[in-house]
Amino acid sequence: MDEPLEIEQEGVGAPAWAAFGDLMAGVLGAFVLVLAAALVGQLDLANQLEAEVAQRQAEQARREALERALAGPLADGRITLVEGRIGISGAVLFAVGSDQLHADGRALIKSLAAPLRTYLAQRDEILMVSGFTDDRGLITGKGAPKFADNWELSAQRALTVARALMAEGLPPDAVFAAAFGPQQPVASNDDAAGRALNRRVEIAPTPRPRQATAAASAAASAASAP
């Protein structure tokens, strides 16, 4: 009697296990990539938060340094200091509709020049002198200053203060003027008190443009070269 035919079963199921292994390897690889991406994202976020904290600390230190430098004028109320901007009432500096400094205004600018000069010498910053007006029309008539509008008046006042600061020893490349006219009011123009607040000059330290800094460094290097 013939013996039963035996059929080889070796290797049955091996392809399935191989496919399962490949699948698991793919899943593991994807998990590793996701984990790596998450870690990189967390690292970027941590670096960003650290940079923001450092920037805020530097800004706070800058404001405190400016406040210390201007302690005298701040204490007697001749100026204000809000978010790093030095505010001076237009009435302290100028007659209504004029760009010529009062004697008291010129004395105030002179008192600010020395601490501002010291402040700038310790930092790579420049001063933006900004002129602002209320929204009322200019005074006209015989003897009245001739300005086309409030924009021109604010520009001339900013230039007057900038030039006064330079006359007191601030470097010309450390001061520039800007005009805002009736824009950016700090109070309502509907009453006299509000309009008086809007007629002002602000002096704000601001970072020196990088291009100018690089040019100055290059010039200094060239000058020191043998």
Layout: helices, strands, pairs:
Blueprint: H1 14-69, H2 71-75, E1 80-82, E2 85-89, H3 90-93, H4 103-121, E3 125-132, H5 150-167, E4 175-181, H6 192-198, E5 200-207, H7 210-224
Parallel strand pairs: 3-4
Antiparallel strand pairs: 1-2, 2-5, 3-5
Helix pairs in contact: 4-5
Tags for this model:
single chain, 226 residues, alpha+beta, 60s Ribosomal Protein L30, Chain: A, 2 domains
Describe the structure.
- It is a single chain.
- The chain has a five-stranded mixed beta sheet.
- The chain has seven helices and five strands; from the N terminus they run ααββααβαβαβα.
- The chain starts with 13 loop residues before the first helix and ends with a helix.
- It is of the alpha+beta class.
- α4 (103-121) packs across α5 (150-167).
- It folds into two domains: 17-69; 70-211, 60s Ribosomal Protein L30, Chain: A.
- The relative contact order is 0.12.
Helix count from the secondary structure assignment: 7
Helix-and-strand structural type:
alpha+beta
Total strands: 5
How many angstroms does the end-to-end distance come to?
113 Å
- Rg, alpha carbons: 34 Å
Strand proportion:
5-15%
CATH architecture identity of the largest domain: 2-Layer Sandwich
In CATH, the topology of the largest domain is named 60s Ribosomal Protein L30, Chain: A
Q: Specify the CATH class of the largest domain.
A: Alpha Beta
Count of discrete domains:
2
CATH homology superfamily name of the largest domain: OmpA-like domain
Low-confidence stretches: none
Backbone shape: elongated
Q: What is the typical, i.e. mean, pLDDT?
A: 82
Helix proportion of residues, in percent?
40-55%
- What can be said about the biggest beta sheet? 5 strands, mixed
The H/E string reads HHEEHHEHEHEH
Domain OmpA-like: 81-209
Transmembrane segments: 16-40
Keywords: Membrane, Transmembrane, Transmembrane helix
Region (Disordered): 187-226
